[in-house]
């Protein structure tokens, strides 16, 4: 039988054991990091921003059950254990963890268990770029990007500009500006971005401990996306010059093509992409309330 390695998750009471099969650790060593040992893995996991955010958010939410008005107050759930199933790194050097799959055991005293398979990947940012024609005020165009998205089985996936947040780009708007510059060549002043998710949640009646962002698949992943908007009037000739522009981010192995879509067609052209549909809905709602 394979040996099970474990350690205690800091900050939780009762004690929560994090475990990993030694066979998996050996596989990680051969695939990713030859010098990986159990203490190094523990440190890498606890420094993984996505894991830290997830654990802190869950801890706060579990504490809400202490309120006698909470629906789980009589039989509160608690985190019992975490089983690490697999891990990917960004690279084979000193790079941080990239993705993690784990199974959590969350039960109450009735032995009812919550679904607990979690794919941790952390946050990202997406920007709805709207270009308004100076000559024809009713004409609006949106920048979309096409790039390979292997998880979707698609080498030509159309979406609005987006990118993951990482430890070097914790500021959402700075990350958004970087993505826009890389994907379109446009340099955008810091103060021209508006965080639509944050603006919408300010007046929401359902407040919780989650990130002020959109969760595209909370049934399986922690991923959250800050949805920003940038709107600008431009000469129509300059707008048209952006068409068919190709930008290669060779260091990341991505080949990105741009296209402009009329705003009135965005809901149709971006229907496969949750970022696009959610951004369109937020923009429409915020416009309707006079917040944009």
TrEMBL record:
Residues 120-283 form the Nudix hydrolase domain. InterPro entries: NUDIX_hydrolase-like_dom_sf (IPR015797), NUDIX_hydrolase_dom (IPR000086). One of its GO terms (molecular function) is ADP-glucose pyrophosphohydrolase activity. Keywords: Hydrolase. Its cofactor is Mg(2+). GO terms for biological process: nucleoside phosphate metabolic process; ribose phosphate metabolic process. Pfam families: NUDIX. It comes from the Eukaryota. PANTHER family: NUDIX HYDROLASE DOMAIN-CONTAINING PROTEIN, UDP/ADP-SUGAR PYROPHOSPHATASE. This is Related to nucleoside diphosphate-sugar hydrolase of the MutT (NUDIX) family.
């Amino acid at each position: 039988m394979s040996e099970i390695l474990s350690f205690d998750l800091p900050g939780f009471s009762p004690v929560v054991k994090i475990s990993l099969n030694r066979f998996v650790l050996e596989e990680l060593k051969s695939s990713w990091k030859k010098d990986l040992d159990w203490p190094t893995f523990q440190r890498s996991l606890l420094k993984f921003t996505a894991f830290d955010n997830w654990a802190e958010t869950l801890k706060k939410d579990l504490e809400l059950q202490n309120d006698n008005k909470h629906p789980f107050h009589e039989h509160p759930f608690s985190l019992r254990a975490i089983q690490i199933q697999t891990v990917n790194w960004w690279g084979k050097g000193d790079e941080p963890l990239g993705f993690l799959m784990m199974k959590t055991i969350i039960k109450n005293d009735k032995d009812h268990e919550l679904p607990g398979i979690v794919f941790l990947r952390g946050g990202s940012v997406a920007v709805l770029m709207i270009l308004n024609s100076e000559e024809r005020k009713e004409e609006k165009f949106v920048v979309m990007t096409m790039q390979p998205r292997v998880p979707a089985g698609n080498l030509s996936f159309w979406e609005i500009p987006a990118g993951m947040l990482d430890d070097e780009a914790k500021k959402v708007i700075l990350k958004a500006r970087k993505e826009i510059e890389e994907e379109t060549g446009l340099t955008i002043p810091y103060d021209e971005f508006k965080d639509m998710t944050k603006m919408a949640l300010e007046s929401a009646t359902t407040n919780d401990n989650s990130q002020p962002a959109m969760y595209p698949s909370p049934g399986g992943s922690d991923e959250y996306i800050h949805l920003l908007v940038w709107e600008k009037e431009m000469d129509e000739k300059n707008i048209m010059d952006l068409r068919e522009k190709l930008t290669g981010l060779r260091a990341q192995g991505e080949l990105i093509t741009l296209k402009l879509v009329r705003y009135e067609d965005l809901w149709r052209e971006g229907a496969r992409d949750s970022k696009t549909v959610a951004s369109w809905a937020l923009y429409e709602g915020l416009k309707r309330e006079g917040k944009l």
